[in-house]
């Protein structure tokens, strides 16, 4: 008996996009478009009728804005949503807001040659739909929710590093880790799978929310405490040494595990240059990028954490790392930040003895 197909409902005011999404999705053996809608009001009735597994949603539509609809949907009937919009490319702030509201992931429409462009990344669309179907829908954090109570900074040397990798669901997971960190936390380096043009807005948004300084990494800059450095969306981020200092290096080499930036590239460089001075964390994400790198970090003497299945949006990358033996501990998302501070403090005490 064959497995049931993933049921997809496509919501877009463009008839061309609706037709292209239907063509791409129905060409896959494991999914099908059960209905299409030109706006959220039509979609609301179709959701009740077809009970889709995944909703693809445009942002700019008549009668109701896509973000308004998403907010209501995630409050009343949480379900996996993949944003598909031209605005997610030009307006990264819109994309980040959609992810905050509970969307699993996003895909930008090509700006030119829409038909060929959509067909060219048909497999990517299918992969993101598969990941969304396996994801755990989550409600957005309330706008008026209190900021996390800041954690106490550990007394450690300036060489201590916290290294984070993430993919699908990672933007909100990273925020959950960074928000409670104290202003003088150890330096962080972060690779989040995200296309070019989005990571700067992501860093700026986090910088407004966090006590630490969050920025997009620049080639050759010193890696210092109280700062988080996010890999640009079109370059690998690496750790390097310059005399007694750690520095960030950007590499425009080919994709690794089909990603640039790649988590494995960052983790491998940390294993080479930091070893026991680093603590690695692999958060929610589709695929296996970062699993081998986390193992290499652990083999180099780093403490390594993997996010547990229950708190992941997609339990792909952490699962692979755990299976390989790359994680010295498996922790829930809410425990990552306090555990990082505790491990940094314990490591600092051990180094001073």
Automatic annotation (TrEMBL):
GO molecular function: phosphorelay response regulator activity; protein-glutamate methylesterase activity; protein-glutamine glutaminase activity
Entry-annotated residues carrying 4-aspartylphosphate: 58
EC number(s) from the headed UniProt entry: 3.1.1.61, 3.5.1.44
Domain of life the protein comes from: Bacteria
Entry keywords, A to Z: Chemotaxis, Cytoplasm, Hydrolase, Phosphoprotein
GO BP annotations listed: chemotaxis
Major subcellular site: cytoplasm
Top-tier EC class: hydrolase
Catalytic activity annotation: L-glutaminyl-[protein] + H2O = L-glutamyl-[protein] + NH4(+); [protein]-L-glutamate 5-O-methyl ester + H2O = L-glutamyl-[protein] + methanol + H(+)
Domain CheB-type methylesterase: 155-347
GO cellular component: cytoplasm
Active site: 167, 193, 289
Annotated compartments: Cytoplasm
Tagged with keyword Oxidoreductase: no
UniProt xrefs under Pfam families: CheB_methylest, Response_reg
PROSITE patterns the UniProt entry points to: CHEB, RESPONSE_REGULATORY
Free-text comment on this protein's domains from its UniProt entry: Contains a C-terminal catalytic domain, and an N-terminal region which modulates catalytic activity.
Function according to Swiss-Prot or TrEMBL: Involved in chemotaxis. Part of a chemotaxis signal transduction system that modulates chemotaxis in response to various stimuli. Catalyzes the demethylation of specific methylglutamate residues introduced into the chemoreceptors (methyl-accepting chemotaxis proteins or MCP) by CheR. Also mediates the irreversible deamidation of specific glutamine residues to glutamic acid.
Protein family according to the UniProt entry: Belongs to the CheB family.
Protein name per Swiss-Prot or TrEMBL: Protein-glutamate methylesterase/protein-glutamine glutaminase
